[in-house]
């Protein structure tokens, strides 16, 4: 689908990644401009001339028979989750992306902000009260819109990282949609609401699971304690029985082998310890 200026996100990922690697500085000149100026101009102000300077520069990083624009699209393909050699040919025809490609791009950026220094910060400054950010002001949002008209058809797009309790990425492409601005704003709010609801459900489930796990651990500990007490009691009973036997034997011996009372006591005690009675 026609992405409009959303292409400036993966385009700047090429350059900010070089900044992160130390291969490029924000003050380095590209086409007579500091890169920091090109970054801000293309993302915050959506300057197409600055973007063209950047893709022409990127297109010179590799050498093949393709055009500079084609080569720049080859370079950004991995950010979009695509193999540049096997991607659909339409990818190279014009400024086309699919929603899935833009989601892959945003997900990579959101999960690796230090890999692309400065890009998210500039996206957070862009159009603070328009597109996805027109109504949704509860959460910080890094976004880049796309806008193009062909005849009477409006192509309105936006892609965003929303910093809800569990951050999310989402994108919308429209093609001649009535009230596209309102549809886009409502969609952003709906996505944030849905995410917050799911987060609350997840946290409640985790809390319940933790409580159940703690209760199970406590029950196991109590059972182990009871088992230990029972084992200790059995040992004490055994030791007490052995003590009585020994005491009875001592009494019998002290009474002498001819003493019938001592012999009777020895016989009874011995039989009790063995589990049966005999006299």
From TrEMBL:
One of its GO terms (molecular function) is beta-lactamase activity. Residues 2-174 form the Beta-lactamase class A catalytic domain. Residues 214-236 are annotated as: Disordered. Transmembrane segments: none annotated. One of its GO terms (biological process) is beta-lactam antibiotic catabolic process. InterPro entries: Beta-lactam/transpept-like (IPR012338), Beta-lactam_cat (IPR045155). Residues 223-236 have a biased composition (Basic and acidic residues). This is Peptidase family S11.
């Amino acid at each position: 689908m026609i992405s409009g200026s959303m292409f400036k996100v993966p385009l700047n990922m090429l350059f900010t990644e070089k900044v992160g690697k130390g291969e490029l500085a924000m003050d380095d000149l590209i086409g007579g401009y500091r890169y920091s100026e090109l970054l801000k101009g293309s993302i915050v102000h959506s300057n197409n001339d600055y973007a063209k300077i950047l893709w022409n520069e990127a297109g010179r990083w590799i050498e093949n028979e393709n055009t500079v624009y084609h080569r720049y699209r080859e370079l950004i393909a991995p950010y979009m989750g695509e193999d540049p050699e096997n991607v659909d040919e339409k990818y190279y025809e014009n400024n086309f992306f699919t929603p899935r490609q833009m989601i892959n791009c945003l997900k990579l950026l959101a999960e690796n902000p230090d890999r692309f220094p400065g890009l998210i910060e500039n996206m957070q400054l862009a159009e603070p009260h328009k597109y996805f950010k027109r109504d949704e002001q509860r959460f910080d949002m890094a976004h880049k819109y796309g806008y193009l008209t062909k005849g009477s058809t409006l192509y309105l797009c936006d892609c965003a990282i929303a910093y809800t309790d569990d951050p999310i990425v989402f994108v919308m492409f429209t093609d001649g949609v009535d009230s596209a601005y309102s549809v886009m704003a409502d969609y952003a709010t709906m996505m944030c609401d849905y995410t917050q609801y799911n987060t609350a459900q997840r946290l409640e489930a985790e809390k319940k699971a933790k409580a159940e796990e703690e209760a199970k651990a406590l029950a196991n500990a109590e059972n182990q304690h009871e088992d230990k007490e029972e084992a200790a009691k059995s040992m004490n009973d055994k030791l007490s029985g052995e003590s009585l036997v020994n005491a009875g034997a001592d009494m019998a011996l002290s009474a002498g082998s001819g003493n019938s009372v001592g012999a009777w006591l020895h016989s009874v005690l011995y039989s009790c310890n063995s589990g049966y009675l005999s006299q």
